[in-house]
Amino acid sequence: MPRLAYVNGRYLPHGAATVHIEDRGYQFADGVYEVVPVFNTILVDEDMHLDRLDRSLSELRIPQPLSRPALKLICRELIRRNGLTNGILYMQVTRGVAPRDHKFPKKSKPALVLTTKQMKPHSEALLRQGLKVVTLPDQRWARCDIKSVSLLPNVLGKQAATEAGAYEAWQVDREGMVTEGTSTNAWIVTDGNRVVTRDATNAILNGITRLTLLDLIRAEGYALEERSFSVDEAKAAREAFITSSTSFVLPVTQIDGQPVGNGHPGILTGKLRQHYVDYMQSLRQSA
Ligand code: PDD
After folding, report:
1. Is 72 among the residues known to form the active site?
2. Does residue 17 have a pLDDT over 90?
3. What is the reported pTM?
4. Nearest C-alpha to atom 8 of ligand 1 is from which residue?
5. Residue 2 pLDDT exceeds 90
6. Domains of the chain, with CATH numbers?
7. Alpha helices in 7-129 (DSSP H)
8. Is the Cβ atom of 244 under 6 angstroms away from ligand 1?
9. Per-residue confidence at 108, pLDDT binned at 50, 70, 90?
10. pLDDT (tens digit, 9 = 90+) per residue, 39-94?
């Protein structure tokens, strides 16, 4: 089955799908994106992702490329045509094509690209061992709540993590507090078994996995605090984990070379991952 991409109204072979060289996404990173998990062919938390897409677009004053029902139809069609069962749907909207000039063009149509990617389940070894994170200064701008394609600091951070043999880099603000990973939200569990994650301000992307997990945590009655935590507190925590559309919930067992808790994936982290997977399994396709 050839892999297809959707580009501005057309389904094209993935390898041959292109956009114009003067697309403002290419020249200015003037665009936004979403990564929606697809689990057993179902788009997980689709409306929450589309709400966040609408918000990112409106914060940057980029018009919506399509109505929500039209966009949903295309998402389903691309998943169907690509035979996608488990993986992600990637959506990108840029301000469109115009002669290079920083200010908004008078005339441009937002450009929409959708792709899908099949992904393997997380390996047993990863779940058994947990993953390593390193910490580094947060060098990003003041609007990390917008899911912009301008991701250079995140790219550099992930590369630094990779070169250090780690899976993720936790970015740290000037006060020494962890903001989030380069493509994931950061969480700890305190000695008192309280789950802690940074409150959603402009300093972080308000992850959809984060929001859903917060609901599950409240529903299960676990103690929860939405607040900043320092690198020192994270290193002294009982458990740590990350969330994202591609990670779901993954245990962190080392921070800057120091074991978290007993160095093994946390018990509460394991339960939260299971709650999240159960939640995805319970979903049925919405209209
Ligand atoms: N990243 N923080 C940042 C900086 C992110 O880029 C992401 C998602 C998250 C988690 O958000 P969500 O739970 O909605 O996936 C937090 C995606 C997966 C990416 O860029 O590939």
Report:
1. no
2. yes
3. 0.97
4. 183
5. no
6. 4-118 (3.30.470.10), 124-286 (3.20.10.10)
7. 24-28, 46-59, 68-81, 124-129
8. yes
9. confident
10. 999 999 999 999 999 999 999 999 999 999 999 999 999 999 999 999 999 999 99
Distances (CA, A) of 33 to 83, 99, 147, 229: 22, 22, 6, 28
Residue 136 · residue 171 · CB < 8 Å: yes
27 CB near ligand 1 (under 6 Å) = no
In eight-state DSSP terms, residue 144 is T
**Residue 180 CB–ligand 1 contact under 6 Å:** yes
Task: From the candidates 107, 147, 158, 235, give the one annotated as an active-site residue.
Answer: 147
**Kind and range of the H or E element at 218?**
helix 208-220
Residue nearest to atom 9 of ligand 1 (CA): 184
Question: Using one digit for the tens of pLDDT, what is the confidence trace for 52-64?
Answer: 999 999 999 999 9
Give Cα 226 to chain centroid, integer Å: 18
Distance 92 CA to ligand 1 centre (A): 14
The alpha carbon of 99 and the centre of ligand 1 are apart by a number of angstroms equal to: 31
In ligand 1, the atom with minimum distance to the C-alpha of 49 is: 14
For the beta carbon of residue 5, count every other beta carbon within 10 angstroms. Answer: 20
CB of 151 closer than 6 A to ligand 1?
no
Q: In percent, how much of the chain has pLDDT > 90?
A: 97
